Design the sequence.
């Protein structure tokens, strides 16, 4: 395109400056002068077009896109093109006919007033688009919410384009909303992409008033910490749980968390968080408020430690698949309850083992030391998750550090508690080794590491017998 325009400019230049005498000689006087003037004006306009194409190719398509990481708005590019053409036309008229741009503006003033009244809304749209590009209130790629009574509900979407008259908004459901620029600039606008970074969302859940708020906050906090590990969520700032309203029979808890709108849809992020909180409420049997008035027993969410410990043991595969009900009750009676403030370490990598933990409420971060000695985050533990099974059964050192991300409550199952079971039922040790060997084989398969399950089972059984030597009197 630039080459073609350059050829046209060269051709017009030759005709205007080298063939003008010949044209004046062969054509009638009036026609000759008209042709020469037309060639001069055309040459000026063609040069302006060539300059605009060169500017578009060098600046808009290369420098601007490299610096900003996006295309320049079409409205701005068209305005620059109009400016080039106006300068070219004015230059041609001035040198060929002696007509100044100020004279043209004076003659067209009355016409402009008439057209202004006739095209009032179009002009408002035009200047609305100009103001958007000048003050940079939003740009292509930004997420906006436009508030206008004619739209019904506020319109939320991503800016796909800005033209002379309209802004194109891509809605989350796939439709395209075309909004006149005057509507955008004359009404409240929320730009979710300014400033850059994660944006906060809030979801609310209602829990029975009689459930202790500290327990509810810790449980919901743990699930929120775990949910924000997914793609599109931001771990910083950390999620939080606030009491937002207290009513006669219910407390409303607000879970606040942060997402990147460019990586996950807002509705999807809310749904993920709602599902995580609902699952925690269901698993802990925390009652939601009821509408009718009735006399009831204390809500199921308020349980004593023995019941809570028994339920937690039932969620541990190592015990759920090997122990009878009486053995579970016996083990629950020997367990210990622990509460840790946020930031404290539950276990440290390299320390000696001899116990495992079941998360009762709250969240904990799991880290391991990399080859450079720096801590690497690998997982988040929350309600019902377990840690330390292998250390409990074999006494091997801890392979990771677990630190409370929120106020944390855990159930500790110690070696001494297991020894009490093995004294009465030594055959449990072999069942434990089978379960652990199966889990280890699953981990090896997931990480593409070869492993022989039977050999691993015998190795684990040997280590466990040595570790629990007091339960058998001798180590085989």
Sequence:
């Amino acid at each position: 395109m630039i080459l073609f325009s350059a050829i046209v400019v060269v051709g017009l230049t030759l005709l205007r400056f080298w063939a003008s005498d010949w044209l004046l000689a062969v054509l009638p006087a009036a026609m000759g002068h008209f042709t020469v003037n037309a060639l001069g004006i055309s040459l000026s306009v063609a040069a302006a077009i060539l300059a605009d194409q060169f500017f578009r190719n060098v600046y808009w398509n290369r420098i601007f896109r490299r610096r900003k990481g996006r295309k320049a708005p079409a409205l701005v590019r068209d305005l620059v093109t109009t400016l080039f053409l106006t300068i070219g036309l004015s230059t041609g008229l001035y040198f060929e006919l002696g007509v100044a741009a100020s004279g043209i503006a004076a003659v067209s003033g009355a016409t402009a007033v008439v057209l202004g009244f006739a095209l009032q809304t179009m002009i408002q749209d035009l200047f609305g688009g100009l103001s958007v590009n000048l003050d940079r209130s939003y740009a292509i790629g930004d997420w906006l919410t436009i508030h206008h009574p004619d739209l019904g509900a506020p319109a939320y979407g991503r800016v796909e384009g800005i033209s002379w008259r309209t802004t194109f908004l891509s809605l989350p459901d796939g439709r395209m909303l075309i909004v006149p620029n005057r509507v955008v600039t004359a009404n409240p606008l929320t730009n979710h992409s300014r400033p850059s970074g994660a944006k906060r969302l809030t979801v609310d859940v209602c829990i029975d008033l009689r459930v202790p708020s500290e327990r509810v906050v810790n449980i919901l906090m743990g699930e929120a910490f775990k949910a924000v590990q997914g793609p599109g969520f931001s771990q910083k700032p950390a999620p939080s749980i606030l009491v937002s309203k207290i009513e006669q029979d219910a407390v409303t808890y607000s879970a606040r968390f942060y997402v990147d709108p460019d990586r996950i849809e807002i509705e999807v992020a809310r749904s993920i968080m709602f599902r995580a909180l609902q699952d925690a409420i269901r698993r802990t049997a925390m009652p939601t408020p009821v509408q009718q008035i009735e006399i009831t027993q204390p809500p199921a969410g308020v349980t004593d430690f023995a019941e809570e410990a028994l339920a937690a043991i039932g969620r541990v595969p190592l015990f759920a698949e090997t122990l009878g009900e009486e053995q579970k009750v016996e083990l629950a009676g020997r367990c210990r309850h622990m509460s840790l403030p946020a930031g404290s370490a539950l276990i440290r990598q390299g320390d000696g083992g001899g116990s495992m933990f079941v998360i009762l409420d709250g969240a904990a971060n799991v880290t391991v030391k990399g080859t450079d000695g720096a801590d690497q985050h690998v997982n988040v533990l929350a309600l019902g998750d377990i840690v330390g099974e292998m250390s409990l059964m074999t006494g091997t050192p801890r392979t990771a550090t677990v630190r409370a991300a929120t106020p944390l409550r855990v159930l500790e199952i110690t070696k001494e508690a297991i020894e009490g079971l093995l004294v009465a039922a030594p055959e449990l040790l072999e069942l434990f080794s089978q379960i652990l060997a199966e889990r280890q084989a699953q981990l090896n398969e997931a990480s593409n590491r070869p492993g022989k399950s039977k050999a691993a089972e015998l190795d684990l059984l040997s280590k466990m017998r040595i570790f629990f030597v007091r339960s058998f009197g001798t180590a085989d």
In short: The chain has four domains: 2-107, 137-191, 199-283, 305-472.
